[in-house]
Amino acid sequence: MTTPVDTSYATGLALQSASQSKGSSNLGQEDFLTLLTTQLQNQDPFQPMENGEFLAQMAQFSTVSGIEQLNTTLSGIGEGMGSFRTATAASLIGRSVLVPGTLARADASGSVHGAATLADPAEAVVVTYSNSVTGQLLHSQTLGAQQAGQVGFGWDEVPSSLVSSRVPIRVSVTATSADASVPLSPSVYARVLSVGTSADGQSTMLEVEDQGSVPADTITSFR
After folding, report:
1. What confidence tens digit (pLDDT) does each residue in 151-207 have?
2. What DSSP string runs through 156-182?
3. Is residue 104 within 8 Å of 208, Cβ to Cβ?
4. Fold for domain 96-218?
5. What separation in angstroms does the CA of 38 have from each of 10, 12, 23, 56?
6. What is the domain partition of the chain in residue ranges?
7. What is the pLDDT of residues 104-157, one digit of tens each?
8. Residues facing 115 on adjacent strands
9. CB atoms within 10 A of CB 104
10. How many CB atoms lie within 10 A of CB 83?
């Protein structure tokens, strides 16, 4: 009489053989089929594998296979989205985006624009524009009372000499109230020179004039 082989022992041998052949503890679809075949070949004929057990293992195999295919698909989608983001960001080249900074250059129409964020209401907001090279005060404007939040500002009559030479203009913003004057950190519209990716290849980066590299996903406004 033939003695049935212990299926757990046979399965263990097949598992060890599959792992050694791949030089890794990670098993794939072929290894799963090898294990299942080994179980079927070495099962006890007096206590064969129940249909439910067989179907359960096949369902597990299908799940593993589906997950692997899903991971491959998502990886491909991620790579495609990265290319799409870069192509979309490339449309900003030559346009101006709002970025944190104090240096701005007049655009072709002779304007400088930006914004500052107020943490609290202010009785007035003072914006000054000066030549970043000589320090000469070029223009000053006082905005009226402002509520907390983002406050936009702009100078539409930049001298033509500064427009043609594209000399950087330094912007300073101060919020005033009865108690004190508080300097603010402005954001200015600056021109996008080129588009690239970060060192790890995960982010799309914009090379912005006078501001350096800026993550594209931080841009909230452009002109």
Report:
1. 999 999 999 988 988 899 999 999 998 888 999 999 999 999 998 888 887 788 999
2. ----HHHHHHT--EEEEEEEE-SS-EE
3. no
4. Immunoglobulin-like (2.60.40)
5. 7, 10, 20, 16
6. 1-43, 96-218
7. 999 989 999 999 999 999 999 999 999 999 999 999 999 999 999 999 999 999
8. 152, 187
9. 29
10. 11
